[in-house]
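Input (p-loop containing nucleoside triphosphate hydrolase protein):
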Amino acid sequence: MGVGNFVIGVVGKPSAGKSSFLNSATDAVAKVGNYPFTTIKPNHGITYYQIDCPCKKYHKEEFCQPKYGKCVDGARFLPIEMLDVAGLVPGASEGEGLGNQFLDDLRGADVLIHVVDVSGTTDQNGKVTTGYDPINDIDWLHSEIHNWVYNNLKKKWVGIVRRHKALKCNAVETLTNQLCGYGTNAKLVGRFMDKLGLKEPLENWDDETLHKVVEAFLDERFPTIVALNKIDLPESGKNIEKICRKYGEERVVLTSALAECFLRKLDKQKFIKYYEGTEFFDLAEDQVDPSPEEKLKTLDDKTRNRLEKVQDMVLFRYGNTGVVECIRKAVKCLNVIPVFPVKNVNNFSSGRFGTKAVFSDCLLVPGGTTVREFARIIHPELDKYYQYAETIGNIRLGEDDLITYDNNIICIKTSQVIQKKNDDKKKDNNNNNDSNNSKDKNKNNDNE
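Output:
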């Protein structure tokens, strides 16, 4: 229930900083190297998406005990899976490099973070160079993913049209069947087809129309955040300005993955107290009467000089390393809503860790999820024995009501059948424990 089914895919050419990005954003330790195919198999890790926890709004911070992730003074960190796909090269959609394998790995991702070496010090194949234009990387990577989908459709298009006519399907049904291998469904296909507004029947689509359909599909299925990495290198400034001017700033984030790795490492080793997503950190000399657990170590001169360089080149110049902002923007693309299922909407208990624990569970659900669908997501039996649901103020919710930020603290009431089953299960467990204890006691008596 804690870790959702959402996956952030990290993509890009070799040596752009993808593995460093994964290491800076997650608990993974991905292999880092300055040569193509450093990452042969995809690396996985868990990153954290920060939201405001309702425990702060209702003054319950001391009782908030998340089952997954953590809550720090009302800041809730929700775990999300991150996937680092091995470096792509131009021609991947035609099988260049290990392209087909890498592109197939993307099927499990819901949103992409494209890590770009904005310094221009690596060419399209990830080899060291000077003066390379990173705009090329943004363009060709999108083209490779587009061609991957387009070519898969095009090579069987005649058969698709023939089947479409024979079954008398509509375009959404046919496309859903053909695109299901990319982890899509009819709802998603319906959304991008509505936005596209095509009037031409599917059997009359030409190549140009098919390219438009694929482009609309990718925008919906694989929304992409561009992480302009290595912002602290000399040539980065002019390239950042050029890229932002061409693509806008809505889905572009300036990042230094290595700086974030360095700051988190110092924090873990207790040399600094780093406030992730900001430019701020505390040193030992900043502390006043810290507890033994919170007391920081004193930095040596070499590490202090490195830290000051990170401040000058990244934190003071850009405000933060950009890594946390990338995660925030990526999750925002998914249009998901955090929902807190509770046992009681008056005291927010969730039946875990004792009666005082609140808001133990939090799920990220897609926008447009209904209350009854949410019950099904939690557990099939909640849906089977569903009676009604309520939110703050004991307000009843309709089964078809959409979950929003205004009703995302939800208590689902079920019939007595499910409660009786749970009580019987507990009773059986207690009887088994009593039986085992009795056997152990008899065994001890025999030994005596």
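The chain has three domains: 7-244, 256-321, 336-414.
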